[in-house]
3-isopropylmalate dehydrogenase (Clostridium facile), 356 residues
Amino acid sequence: MEKKIAVIKGDGIGPEIVDQALRVLNKIAEKYGHTFHYTDVLMGGVSIDATGVPLTNEALETAKQSDAVLLGAVGGPKWDNQPANLRPEKGLLAIRKGLNLFANLRPAVLYEELNAACPLREDIIGDGFDMMIMRELTGGLYFGERKTIEENGVQKAIDTLTYDENEIRRIAIKGFDIARKRRNKVTSVDKANVLDSSRLWRKVVHEVAKDYPDVELEDMLVDNCAMQLVRDPKQFDVILTENMFGDILSDEASMVTGSIGMLASASLNETKFGMYEPSHGSAPDIAGQNKANPIATILSASMMLRYSFDMDKEADDVDQAIKKVLQKGYRTGDIMSEGNTLVTCSEMGDAILQEL
Ligand code: IPM
Ligand code: MG
């Protein structure tokens, strides 16, 4: 098969981790007879430096013309004092909106080989956990109207949180569909005891649930969910939630696994198109030192093969290679524990290529 991939290396550790993922994709292409065409796209701080804005229209167009986007990470202290519209993060929000990527899948999995990195007690870990956070990604508080004004000499800031039923329905449908491919349970997280947007969320999710009698649905308030994630993460299969709650809970869930450097993510629209990126950030403190863990990005590339290209066999191959490398004891600094072999970012790439 022939596929066009837009590649956004971004800032910080972005370029080094994406390079390792590209090596893996090239190896897969060679092994299975595919052709991947890559186009570099600027976004984030590097785009601000080169063009003055975090995402140009041309960059967005290039992404739209491709079959999928592979993204490293954006942001860094260099651009922290920029006005809101000229921050690297704005590029990320704009590309999500521009590509209509309303469904964000963030798996939080405890890797058996990495139990030592999990901060939870052994009796809580049990035989591990594997959940999928489904975050609504193009609505709610992050895309509502906002302004800062002065009223009677007092500064006042306003952010608006809006959802319409269609935005809720389409992410709910995706959530239930994904639950069917997993363990048939959806936990819908909201703040329906306070917020109107959450009451609508709950109502629409329950309507959608009627079409999925085989999937168990439970409602959970977001504060309780934050607690349950550390008290008993095993109870979760799919967590379905709105934009801000999903932002916060997915960071918590990834930390609970102890290996954020291992967690991939996919952002999807209604078609096969998707944007794939690690769940972690640009880690400016270790950028350019060849120390970062490339596994989350390589697993993101594997999700791209699976979800956008229907290349399940190829994706399985990549996932297996990573498992083998972990079993052999290769570890980057973030997941290092006694008795294992510390490797660099590119050495981790070498080790994974070896297994393919
Ligand atoms: C994330 C990030 C972004 C978000 C920021 C960088 C805008 O935290 O992908 O979770 O809040 O969506
Ligand atoms: Mg976040």
Summary: The longest strand covers residues 2-10.
